[in-house]
Amino acid sequence: MEILGWLLDIYANREDGLVLWLIGEDGKRYRLHQAFSVTFYAAGPAPRLRVLWQFLRDQPQPVLLARTERRELFHSQPIPLLAARVLNAADQPSLFKAASKAFPDLTYYDADIPLALRYHAVYHTFPLAYCRVRVDAKNQIQHIEPLNSPWDIDSVYPPLRILTISPEHDPSHAPPQSLKIHYEHNEYELPLKPTRSLLIGLAALLRRYDPDLILSAWGDTWLLPYLLEHSRALNIPLPLNREAKHGIDQRPDRTYFAYGQVIYRGGQIRLFGRGHIDVCNAVLFGDYGLDGVLEMARVTGLPLQGAARLSPGTGISSMQMITALQDQILVPWHKQQAERPKTALDLIQSDRGGLVYQPLIGLHKNVAEIDFISMYPSIMVHFNISPETVGEHLPNAQPVPALNLFVDQQNYGLVPRTLEPLLNKRINLKTHLASLPRWDPRRKRYKAWASAHKWLLVTCFGYLGYKNARFGRIESHESVTAYGREALLIAKEVAEDMGFTVLHMYVDGMWIKKEGASHADDFQPVLDTIIERTGLPIALDGIYRWIAFLSSRLDKRVPVANRYFGVFQDGSLKMRGIETRRKDTPPFIAQTQRTMLERLAKVQDANQLSQALPELVHILRQCLADLRAYRIPIKQMLVSQKLSRTIEEYRTPSPAARAAAQLQAIGKITKPGQRVRFVYTRGKPGVYAWDLPTPPEPAILDIERYTTLLLRASSTVFQPFGVDEESLRDWVIANAGYAAPPGILSDGKSRAPLWTASLSV
DNA sequence: TACAGTCGGGG
DNA sequence: GTGTACGACTGTA
After folding, report:
1. Are residues A561 and A618 in the same domain?
2. Which whole number is the average pLDDT over A1-18?
3. Closest nucleotide (CA of A339 to C1')?
4. What's the domain count of chain A?
5. Are A539 and A626 in the same domain?
6. For residue A656, is pLDDT > 80?
7. What's the pLDDT score for residue A339?
8. Nearest nucleotide relative to A640: CA against C1'
9. Å between A524 CA and B6 C1'?
10. Which of chain C's bases lie under 7 Å from a protein CB?
11. Using one digit for the tens of pLDDT, what is the confidence trace for A548-593?
């Protein structure tokens, strides 16, 4: 029988070997299986390999052993190996674990590759691939071939059956009462109590609708554990899994260090035969939604549930593994070794990072921002930078600018080979996006895809320099930044040669202006020349009607890199580094700052900007009056900060640590990397945690402290006009008084607070 | 004043 | 299934 359909899930099963779920074009869901053997390799002294041979032969798992040789990334000559071909893929993890434990001295390859990646490498499939499959009478796969490619931009989506389940509010704040259920055109609420009817109702729904994907809110951290626990206790089976022969994959929460900070990931619950994605626990789900997750799975090869929860590096590492498998290059075993702290010398030597030129402080008109497109990944592809192509002494190699390193130009590197199709797809998408009309439904999808690609491309660079990366090497990382600095210096030279003033440079972007230049055409020759001189793609991000580069708050003569706000010619705002961008700014303050900037953005003539200042003061006074009169909802006053360590480890307890201590006192444990929400209160301890059982009394709120924060954020907006924080305070408070500001409630009528305009929920 | 703690960045 | 380093800034002792 031949089936056409989309590949939904792949996993190993002891009885059936590899299990593959297909969404048939006929609407049926097919559970197929296939004999799929998996090979791992060991290298080391011949006598030790002989002992390993005997050891593996005597294990219960069926395995075929052979001597062979293969290429390792950093060696041009193949290395001799013992190959262990495990006949049932389900046996591979346990067999490898036994071998590595008994023979820790040997070097292992292809030992810990996710099964789905191996399968995709062999058959050129990918998650959600549209496939033609031939099966026998027992649903055993005889032949499988993909009919599309992950690099297509016009692939047809599979008709996924999606069930959405979410409690009516955040369970960490207060116990929810009911679940909102949504699928196709059905929407209703299920009360959590009585639990028996909830479980019976859900079980019936799962059987009747049989979803491919369960999208939940807090499903990993609260809902599914809650349902599973009660399902066991009351002995009411709940068919969350589609696969009957499998348990549920339940993983604990964890805290780890990455991106220079502590990161917390909640526990996870993954299903078999269908997917579960907790939108609150999925990386960047808020940014790119389900479309982005599906795209992430397609291009990385990771199963849907993994793609939704991936950590930095996992996605790009998976793509590199598929490239290596297809090119018959050994994939090193990823031993988890604790990273030793760097010495001071390491720090000085290793990282010079991106190039930054301090901005010219103040207000500038008709400024163009030009950015290298995906600069670091473009450099890797264009200059062939890969761990194995960069070295100290290479013949026929190209020297890296300003470093004593060379790049091999004979062999195309693993990293550029992996990245090239991704970069091309991104360019292809951008070209299409530019030509699609505004109403076209594909726009949203393409934007989500591009956003997923962006994330992969950004993490890819960092991964090159990561000591524990399978395919990483610090020299290649340094070469990328060296080429980046060189490119930016060339760009600066080109712009200045053509009579432009360079106002600011930041890693991959440059802000320039010239008297009389205000249209895209005026800047095009600069762009063309930069592309010609560097070989790297660069684009005009936009032309600012005006832009303000801010100074240091501590010393107004000192500029601060990447702290600015400005308005493009189309009226849109761009701001970086200011309070509204910070996640620990209370929402009403962030909103007030944005409201003020939006008011400035309405001024057409940049020379008239200062005429808007009285209106900004009015906005500020209204907000202050609302604050004083307790008209601002407490939710808008919440500060959200991340815990960097356990509560006991704090030497001086930060506000977040004190709030976490309050939660701990009532048994709510917060772990490093988790966020804590709180309000500032008067006296000690100065904070009140939002997730305590009772909300804070308005009377204890520290209005003075919020006033200071509000004035500080406002003064950022006033800074380019020469109004500092002190003068602003005098202007707004001392002269006008804020107990009864003019025009506020003087006529006895109530007025809607400003911040409700764009802030609901 | 020193230093401990938090954040941004790319979009 | 863990990119790194740094600078700005705030709050506390």
Report:
1. no
2. 95
3. C2
4. 3
5. no
6. yes
7. 45
8. B6
9. 41
10. 1-13
11. 999 988 888 888 888 999 999 999 999 998 999 888 999 999 999 9
> Given the structure tokens 């010609």, which residue do they identify?
A532
Residues 537-566 of A, Cβ under 7 A from nucleic strand B: 562
Residue whose Cα is closest to the C1' of C1: A314
Amino acid found at A62: P
Look at the alpha carbons of A581, A583, A584, A590 in this order and tell me if their dihedral is positive or negative.
positive
Q: In angstroms, how far is the first alpha carbon of chain A from the final one? A: 52
Report CA(A645)–C1'(C13) in Å, whole number. 20
Nucleotide closest to A268 measured between CA and C1'? C1
A112 CB closer than 7 A to any strand C atom: yes
Which positions of strand B lie within 7 Å of protein CB atoms?
4-11
Judgement on whether residues A646 and A556 belong to the same structural domain of the protein: no
Identify whether A685 is preceded by a cis peptide bond (ω within 30 of 0).
Answer: yes
Binning pLDDT at 50, 70 and 90, where does residue A298 land? very high
Residue A532 has a pLDDT of: 96
Q: In this structure, are A640 and A560 located in the same domain?
A: no
Task: Reply yes or no on whether the pLDDT at A742 is more than 60.
Answer: no
**Rounded CA separation A750/A755 (Å):** 15
* Nucleotide closest to residue A465 (CA–C1'): C3
Q: Which two tokens stand for residue A655?
A: 């506000």
Q: Is residue A672 part of a domain?
A: yes
Which of chain A's residues 677-736 bind strand C, using a 7 Å CB cutoff? Answer: 686, 705, 708-709, 712
Interatomic CA–C1' length for residue A250 and nucleotide C1, angstroms: 15
For the stretch A36-88, pLDDT in tens is: 999 999 999 999 999 999 999 999 999 999 999 999 998 889 999 999 999 99
Residue span of the structural domain in which A231 resides: 162-209+213-273
* Strand C at less than 7 A from CB of A750: no
Per-residue confidence (pLDDT) for residue A260, from 0 to 100 = 64
Q: How far is the CA of A405 from the C1' of B6 (A)?
A: 37
CA of A461 to C1' of C10 (A): 32
Distance CA A714, CA A727 (A): 12
**Domain of residue A682, CATH code:** 1.10.132.60
> Would the Cβ of A462 be found within 7 angstroms of any atom in strand C?
yes
- A633 shares its domain with A548: no
**CB of A641 nearer than 7 A to strand B:** yes
Per residue in A385-408, pLDDT (tens digit) is: 999 999 888 878 999 998 889 999
Rounded Cα gap, residues A106 and A447, in angstroms: 46
Q: Six-digit token pair at A567?
A: 């308005």
A640 and A521 together in one domain? no
Q: What is the pLDDT of residue A511?
A: 95
For residue A11, list its beta bridge partners.
Answer: A19
Is-contact A389 A377, C-beta < 8 A?
Answer: no
CA of A383: how far to CAs of A373, A424, A593, A731, in Å?
A: 15, 16, 43, 56
Q: Considering only A192-201, A284-293, A458-467, A750-759, which range has the smallest mean pLDDT?
A: A750-759
Are A553 and A628 contained in the same domain?
A: no
